[in-house]
Amino acid sequence: MRQFTKDPTANGETDFKGETEWLDTDGRIHFLNQYADFASKFFENPDLDQAIVTDGEIDSLLSALKPQPSPRVRETLLLKDWKSYGYRRGQHEESKTALREWKSYKGVTIEEEALVLENGKIEKTIDLMDWRFKLESRIRLSSGSTVFWSLKKGKENVIEVEIGENKIRTQSTLGMKESTLDLNQWVDLLIEADLQEKKFNVRINGVLVFDFIPMANQKIDIVDEIIIEGHGKVVVDDLLLMNYAQNDNVRIPFIPEVRIDENFELKKPPQNWTDIDFDDGDWKEVKLPAVHGGLREAGEALYLRKKLKLGGFERGTLEIESLDPGGEVWINGEVVTVVDTRHPRVIDVTRYLRKNDQNIIAVKVRPYRSNIPMTHSPADRNIGWFLDETKLVLSSQCMIQDVEVYTKELGGVALQSNTIRIQYPRSEYFSGNVQVNYYPWFPDEGDTVATVTIPVEVRPRIVNTIEVDLPITDPLLWAPGNPHLYKVEVLLRDNEDQVIDDKVITTGIRTIDQSGGYLYVNQKVEMLNGVQIMGFRTPVEKLAKYNRCPPDEIVAEEMLMVQKMDANLLRIHVHAEKDTADGVNDIRYARLADQMGIYLIWSTAGFIREGEAWNVDIEGYPAYMARVFNHPSIVMWEASNHPNRFKNHDISDSHDYIRDIYNTIYDRDPSRLISPTSFWQHTHYGNYRGDLDYEGNPMVPVPEYHASRMTRGSQDAYTGYGAEWTKLRTAPNEWAASCLNAGEKAYFNFEHEESAGQPNWELSKGKPWYKIQSYEWSYEKGSIGRKLNADEWRASQAWQAFSAWESMKKQMLLGYDGFSWCSLRGGANTGTYQKPLIDNLRHPKLAYYTNKMAFQRTWAGSANVDVIYGPDDAIEPVIHHLGEQLVVNLRVTLVNAENIELDAKEYHDVQLKRGRDIVKLPGFQFDALPGKYGFIVYEIFGEE
């Protein structure tokens, strides 16, 4: 979009706001409103209210995920289903007291762990609520019965809801409201109340029945009592009352508080829980990874039990991806290990297991509370603790412990490096041979395409490492769009040529390199274009619980969000603390990315956000790498986000960290790029060459600074943080320029937070974050001229989208090799963070679509960022291309706000070179001009 004028002062490259601005504040806001109206229709979401992902799509993705292949000789037991129980000291007495109080009301009993009212009434005083709250419960009615819910202050009802006779009624200042229901089954009731707005929602079984209607009493702004009254027989279960208290911290504007959380069950202390005959009949069934946490489970240890019948075997190995943050592992009543780190565990448990008998594995996960919350963390500091994926491997004594593969060379033949680790816990050598076989596996399976067999002598006790190079002729490569995967089978035979052990993994044939200022994947120029996740997903009471370990459905949801944006990258950027290594090593993202064809920047759980760089878990980093090594979707290891205290120390701090972290990662994996920090300017290094420090003094970099796998990049926000357009017009910044001009390594914008965009507030009525402006609100004043009000949310989204496109466009033309928007979805800052491309409830903002536009392999636009076209300004088209050689035609069309064509210009037979090409075309002026605003549509057509 551009504004047109005959005023000659608008000639040249005008800023939206800045040194060469032409518009005033009112003009800028009017411009943005016009942009929002046109763009929302152009992207076929005129009301900006469409969810980007559905539950059905999530289920389809998970059901289509191809399970990992199984070995033929060893037995691998995926310990998926467990019994679980949460408990903290003192809960037994607390629950007894609470149940006694519930039963003290007339006509109220507890039966089968549910509250039963037979013409009974509960009047319960609660700590006052004076802002926003929600009530959830499950209800079952007998024939002819009704239940009445009331939330009140003194004698005054603030909210009243009656359910019965297949109807729901509520009182409002608009009169009695009524709706028909099907009450044959359990009914899920949800009331979302806003005492500030004096309105509330009622949802039944997830369906909105009353949409933010006025409360019965508009004068009362406090609730301190709840009434539940049953006529006939009414069963109530799972009663939750959450209060949201206002807070004067702009980054945490409200604090969730539990007023009532009752499932009407007696909390029994889990005595003798490790015994095989312990009665766990009332424990909850869960699937790994299993997580506990958040306010509702604060302080509770998570107890897990798994029974399994085993046959005969020689060796048993328990593999735990993570017991986070630590805990205990028991087998058959004996302590196997006490865990004090998040590191993956591979434990020989042979002596604890009973052959040809029933066994019990019991795990206790310690509760966790964050120490120093980082900027975007929720008020709830009970960051989820969990048992990650766990399996039991039954094998021979001589065992293949690990197989790691990567592509060394690529051409008509791919040379695959295979590292095999074997261990034999005996006093003598083991002699035999090892065979490595490759098979096509995804999307289609096929016969053996390569095989090699070599003799081996396995030394006793120690881990023996065997390196085998294997050529693959005419390989099917892994890449977005064609994510081909191979099954790699490793067979271990004894001297009689009998297979005694095997291990099977899946991988892809793929290389990643950088040279000449470009990124190469499979020897073709590529970009990494996408977003990052932060690990915070609403509802508010689960922000902390699911931070490090979400359900499968959330993992799939986020991967679909990335895919639908035509992005090819997800940066795994999950954390909740400043100085603590608390990233994630969630293998589920890698499995999905492998099969969906999405690149990953991987941080591992050794990652830190900020603070001292030495808080990176350097010791544990290789162990985390080993668990995900074979996933071709992982193209870069990231050790830290932006440790920011290097300059508090002498120059050796930067040198030593860069050397140590690079060598730690490279020694384990020479095939991927390595990012020690995504914000190099915090180090002492002042330019690309590393021969000047940040103050301009001469220095000598460590050799690792220029190592082949070392990245360059930063977090460049040319229109973010309230920046004026001048910063974009004069881009790149000094650091970026030194890297881009060197023309050697690829250069990534690891975290470009271009700006904030207010959500469509209509979609969050009744939610605790409704109309709460983010701490980022002042950015609008810097970039636009003033803060935009809640009713100007469309203009706010327009600014985010307009600036995102113009900024990403210019950065691509400057030679940037990839982007990661911060971040994908809302949820951070207790749900009030507004930079994300998708709101807290799955609705994409306008910037989601302009990111998608920028991620096209071939696009056209204006060669500059001129916002106002004066009488002498020309349209200067440019085409940015990524891919094979093409010959295309370009049509540049001028339309008005009604999308009526006013004029057009065509370019024919434009030659686009293979790789990455930028073609600037001759400028022109339209003959017909719009009245004020013009929308310029660039359409690229293939060769006729």
TrEMBL record:
Keyword vocabulary terms for this entry: Glycosidase, Hydrolase
Limits of the Glycoside hydrolase family 2 immunoglobulin-like beta-sandwich domain: 448-510
GO molecular function: hydrolase activity, hydrolyzing O-glycosyl compounds
Entry-linked Pfam families: Glyco_hydro_2
Keyword field contains Hydrolase: yes
One GO term (biological process): carbohydrate metabolic process
Keyword Cell membrane: no
Entries under InterPro entries matching the protein: Beta-gal/glucu_dom_sf, Galactose-bd-like_sf, GH, GH2_Domain-Containing, Ig-like_fold, Ig-like_GH2
Family: Belongs to the glycosyl hydrolase 2 family.
Protein name: Glycoside hydrolase family 2 immunoglobulin-like beta-sandwich domain-containing protein
Organism: Membranihabitans marinus
